[in-house]
Specification:
The structure is a single chain. Helix content is about 40%, strand content about 20%. The chain contains 3 helices and 5 strands; from the N terminus they run βββααβαβ. α1 packs across α2. It is an alpha+beta fold. The longest helix is centred in the C-terminal third of the chain and has 17 residues.
């Protein structure tokens, strides 16, 4: 006798319903978001900041220019907002890239 021919009460219950795995209803929360902030300094060229924004944050030239000018005029500008692990990775990548090119560009995280 195949398992399909057994009476329903003797068939094992693996949490499947109509051939789909069912899970208890779960409330999913949105992850906390973090702003990746570029901070102004007197040594990193504006062109390098634009390059960083295009390379790591996929900003077009106009967006990168606006953010760079905001950093230059106000002291800081938001490059993007991400869940913590992504924001942390972006900070590390940009910091490493900046140091490799000899610039002290400061990039930080701020919880939204």
């Amino acid at each position: 006798m195949s398992s399909d021919q057994r009476p329903k009460e003797t068939q094992p219950n693996f949490g499947f319903e109509d051939d789909l795995l069912t899970l208890p209803d779960q409330k999913l929360e949105r992850p906390k978001m973090y702003k990746v902030v570029l901070n102004n300094d007197d040594y990193t060229p504006m062109e390098f900041v634009i390059h960083v924004l295009q390379k790591f944050f996929r900003k077009n030239e106009g967006e990168a220019m606006q953010i760079m000018l905001l950093v230059h005029k106000t002291g800081k500008g938001v490059a993007g907002t991400f869940p913590f692990s992504i924001a942390e990775t972006k900070v590390r990548q940009v910091s490493d890239f900046s140091r490799q090119h000899g610039y002290p560009l400061l990039i930080t995280l701020e919880q939204e």
